[in-house]
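Lab channel / #folding
Pinned by the channel admin:
"Please post every new chain as: sequence first, then the structure tokens as a reply. Keep commentary short and put observations after the output so the thread stays searchable."

First post following the new format, from NK:
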Amino acid sequence: MSDERLHAYLDGELSEPERAALERELAGDPAARARLEALRALDVALGELYREELRRAEPALARLHLPRARRVRLRWLLVPLAAAAGALAGFFLRGAAPASRDFAAVATLATGPFLVDDGVGAPREARAGEFLAAGTRVSAPPGVRLALVLHDGSELRLDCESSLRLAGERKIELAAGRAWSRVVPGTPFRFECGGAAVEVHGTELSVERQGERTEVLLFSGAAELEAGGATRVLAAGETAVWEGGALSEARRIESEAIATGWMLELYAYSGTHQKDLAEHLDRLLIEMGHRKLVSFEEQVLTSELAGVCRVPIARYLVSEGARAELDSRRKAARVLERIADPSVAVPLSAALRDPDLEVRRSAARALKRISRGELCPDPEQAAQAPEAQIPACERWAEEQAGLLEPPKTSKLAVVGLLLTL
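Reply from TO:
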């Protein structure tokens, strides 16, 4: 009688006839009954051993979107698999399972084998699915990129030829290369890069270290780069560099799409790559909108380029990076006042919440025009008191979005947009 059949019996996976047949066999086989009870006891022992590890891992597991497992009894197998294997060996060889080390992250994706050094023996190769303890050093060799989910749910992606250490609670030491992270809100999250440090407050950013040079690119949220006794507070869409003992002023990121383009390979490996590609496509649209606004006069944008600029300019208008660029927002709103159509009703509705009256006024006028007077019949009043208008505008925008064919996001579409920038 195989262990596979006994596991299926314990898991409730056998059909009623199969279950009855196995129980008849067990009734006449004392050795099989003893084996069944040993497997049952092993499940209980391992479940107790990793109950606390499972609790700590829950935020990260929630971000993995793992497929529903058939064997619901073995839910604890989602906690550190390497540690579980060690515990299993220990149970049989020593009669008791050793305590596991603190769980810090899980490697959710990898384009090839990478190196880990957990202080237990020599550095070794690892692959996606590896659970990593606090203090582990992780290195991506040439040609390999990987993605981690930390135990608090924060996401981390590591580029080729990069190395970091899981240094502690919400703390990463970047030794070399480039890392991207989407940090969940909470206590400050820190990247340490030799003489420079980045304090993150719930955000999306990229940190790159080459020797003593550290560059931070902030895509959303808030962060501070500390080095040489000075601090640079970064807003969304800004970057700063520590190099040669000097900390640069914050400046606008030249191309967020290009800065994050190295992650496209990971998107292709991800089971949720459509979402990742959609986010990258949105970033490309925002960047395209900004470039068109700074490169062309309003007359050109509202005539020859109207068809290709409508959506990118609308996405830029309500992007986080546009918040600090009032003149560009006003120009975007004026252009949309003339070229908007129902395809950009959602960002126009969001623009009614803009802190600037001129932007709100142009958005209200655009909404009135594309709805043929159904929305914002008095644009000036709507701009002065937008909260009364926003619910109706948002409902209408959602209805229009439902009538339009949703765009299909593909790597080809992303490449095409890159070529137009």
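NK: The chain has three domains: 3-94, 103-254, 272-420.
TO: also worth noting, The two ends are 65 Å apart (CA to CA).
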